[in-house]
Every structure is written in structure tokens, then in C-alpha cells.
Design a protein that fits this description.
It is a single chain. By secondary structure, the chain is an alpha+beta fold. The chain is built from four helices and two strands. Helix 2 runs antiparallel to helix 3. It is elongated.
């Protein structure tokens, strides 16, 4: 039950808070002063935060619309990142 609550908390964390926590984890791991067991836990937490941030960015990309001016006026078009336009 506690694990589900912890997962729900992470889902509700803001993108900025997740990035800040992720940067803290990276700093700790790069310092090299972390015991192996703690390093593994930090790495696992960092991976979850990374996936969370990636998911939030994808959600934002889907919500963004671009206004395009055509002969008939302005039209909305869903945002497509540059690599999707090229079929990659």
C-alpha cells in the first residue's frame, strides 16, 4: 500500500520539482561519495524521475497547437517535433 502511495506522489510531482530532484541525484552520484546500495537506490529513483519528466514533456507536446497562416486565414495545427516531420 505504501508503495502505491509513493508512486502516486511521484505522478503528482511537478516537472520542475522532478527535474530539481533529478539534478540532485545526478550530483550525488557524480560526487562518488555514495555507498553502493544508496547509489543503486538513487539510480532507480533517477530513472523513474527521468521517465516521469519524459512523459510530462510528451503530454505537453500533444497539447501544443501551432497557428499556421494560409490563404484562407489562420488555422490550428497540432505541434509535431522536428524529428516527427522527417518520419524519424
Amino acid at each position: 500500500m505504501a508503495a502505491k502511495e509513493k508512486e502516486k506522489e511521484k505522478e503528482e510531482i511537478s516537472f520542475e520539482a522532478a527535474m530539481e530532484r533529478l539534478e540532485g541525484i545526478v550530483s550525488k552520484l557524480e560526487s562518488g561519495d555514495v555507498p553502493l546500495e544508496t547509489a543503486i537506490e538513487l539510480f532507480q529513483e533517477g530513472m523513474k524521475l527521468s521517465q516521469l519528466c519524459g512523459s510530462k514533456l510528451e503530454q505537453v507536446e500533444r497539447k501544443i497547437e501551432v497557428l499556421i497562416e494560409t490563404e484562407n486565414g489562420l488555422h490550428r495545427k497540432p505541434f509535431a517535433p522536428a524529428n516527427e516531420d522527417k518520419g524519424e
